[in-house]
């Protein structure tokens, strides 16, 4: 028997879930989330999930803890409603930044969330550009880890004159991703050595590579407070870059981010719709809905997902 493919959305990013469902030619499934007077959440599916191949789309954007809890409850409720298989689709997995014990007496929260999702009953996870790719290994269930690289490469290739451009990794963690993008675009690579001073402040220690007179293309996994971004732009401009563009998979844009970008000499900042898009004269949104739709279709059909990227 062919299991029906069912797509549901939590409350974090319904426009993306809707776009994924549309790309698959399916209606978005109906569900309700309520908050009781005592702050407890309540979720209920408004249609049958029996023997369905269920995909629940939820990004960990603020309020992160509410969205995490809602996803756990939706997974649990789907299993309880006799879904045949439940895939947690987490376009933005914010806690991938809590991936190691780099200070005493702290929680490796990415691993804790992996455990919670499995306890809730998730059979698979589908996600994109984990800040720390090793987080994949915290799960004992299959994880498909998508990359926004083709979408970001296409943005730079169509938006910027690549004749005299250089790809820039704004910190060590982004070096591998930036190097892959530079190879794809046939461009040289530069690298910034950054030090995090606090949650919202960073300091550039060193810029390695030739950027003078060039168009610099910063590529990052996420833009949160935009501290990393504006400091990188500043360092590049001081080193003589002609202009700076930036692209990130996850445009979280919290706290001072939008103000910092508005005041920065950066020409344009692009991010995908893994997080709900924000408005701003320099901001652009790239959609990853077709990529997620294709991955979901392949998972449903039991086809290779990695070959999407080869
Ligand atoms: C950090 O290591 C990441 O790659 C991003 O650069 C960082 O998470 C962005 O955070 P913020 O925008 O707050 O500097």
Automatic annotation (TrEMBL):
Cofactor: Mg(2+)
UniProt domain Ribose-phosphate pyrophosphokinase N-terminal: residue ranges: 6-121
Pathway: Metabolic intermediate biosynthesis; 5-phospho-alpha-D-ribose 1-diphosphate biosynthesis; 5-phospho-alpha-D-ribose 1-diphosphate from D-ribose 5-phosphate (route I): step 1/1
NCBIfam families on file: PRK01259.1, ribP_PPkin
Residues the record marks as active site: 194
Catalytic activity of the protein: D-ribose 5-phosphate + ATP = 5-phospho-alpha-D-ribose 1-diphosphate + AMP + H(+)
EC number(s) on file: 2.7.6.1
Cofactor note text: Binds 2 Mg(2+) ions per subunit.
Keywords: ATP-binding, Cytoplasm, Kinase, Magnesium, Metal-binding, Nucleotide biosynthesis, Nucleotide-binding, Transferase
Protein function: Involved in the biosynthesis of the central metabolite phospho-alpha-D-ribosyl-1-pyrophosphate (PRPP) via the transfer of pyrophosphoryl group from ATP to 1-hydroxyl of ribose-5-phosphate (Rib-5-P).
GO molecular function, one term: kinase activity
Residues involved in ADP 1 binding: 36, 38, 40, 97-98, 100, 102, 131
Keyword ATP-binding part of the UniProt annotation: yes
Binding site for Mg(2+): 131, 171
Broad class of the protein's primary localization: cytoplasm
Binding, ADP 2: 38, 40, 98, 100, 102, 131, 196
Protein name: Ribose-phosphate pyrophosphokinase
Residues the record lists as binding ATP: 38-40
Iron-sulfur keyword on record: no
Recorded name of the encoding gene: prs
Subunit architecture: Homohexamer.
Location of the protein in the cell: Cytoplasm
Ligand binding (D-ribose 5-phosphate): 196, 220
Family classification: Belongs to the ribose-phosphate pyrophosphokinase family. Class I subfamily.
Gene Ontology BP term (one): purine nucleotide biosynthetic process
InterPro entries associated with the record: Pribosyltran_N, PRTase-like, PRTase_dom, Rib-P_diPkinase, Rib-P_diPkinase_bac
């Amino acid at each position: 028997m062919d299991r029906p493919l069912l797509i549901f959305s939590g409350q974090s990013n319904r426009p993306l879930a809707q776009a994924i469902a549309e790309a698959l030619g399916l209606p978005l499934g109906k569900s309700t989330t309520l908050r009781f007077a005592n702050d407890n959440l309540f979720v209920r599916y408004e249609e049958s999930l029996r023997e369905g191949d269920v995909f629940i789309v939820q990004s960990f954007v603020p309020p992160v803890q509410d969205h995490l809890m809602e996803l756990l409850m939706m997974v649990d409720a789907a299993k309880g409603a006799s879904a045949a298989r439940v895939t947690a689709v987490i376009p933005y997995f914010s806690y991938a930044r809590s991936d190691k014990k780099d200070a005493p007496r702290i929680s490796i929260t990415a691993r804790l969330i992996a455990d919670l999702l499995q306890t809730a009953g998730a059979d698979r996870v589908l996600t994109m550009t984990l800040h720390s790719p090793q987080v994949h290994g915290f799960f004992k269930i299959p994880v498909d880890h998508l990359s926004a690289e083709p979408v970001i490469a296409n943005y730079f290739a169509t938006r910027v004159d690549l004749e005299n451009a250089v790809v820039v990794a704004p910190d060590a963690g982004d070096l591998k991703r930036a190097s892959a993008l530079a190879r794809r675009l046939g461009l040289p690579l530069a690298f910034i050595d950054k030090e995090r001073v606090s949650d919202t402040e960073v300091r550039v220690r060193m810029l390695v590579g030739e950027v003078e007179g060039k168009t610099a293309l910063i590529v990052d996994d996420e833009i949160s407070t935009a501290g990393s971004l504006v400091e990188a732009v500043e360092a590049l401009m001081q080193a003589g870059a002609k202009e700076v563009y930036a692209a990130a998979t996850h445009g979280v844009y919290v706290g001072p981010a939008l103000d910092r970008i508005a005041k920065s000499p950066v020409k344009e900042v692009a991010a995908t719709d893994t997080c709900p898009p924000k408005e701003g004269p320099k901001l652009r949104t790239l959609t990853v809905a077709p990529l997620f739709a294709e991955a979901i279709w392949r998972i449903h059909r039991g086809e290779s997902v990695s070959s999407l990227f080869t």
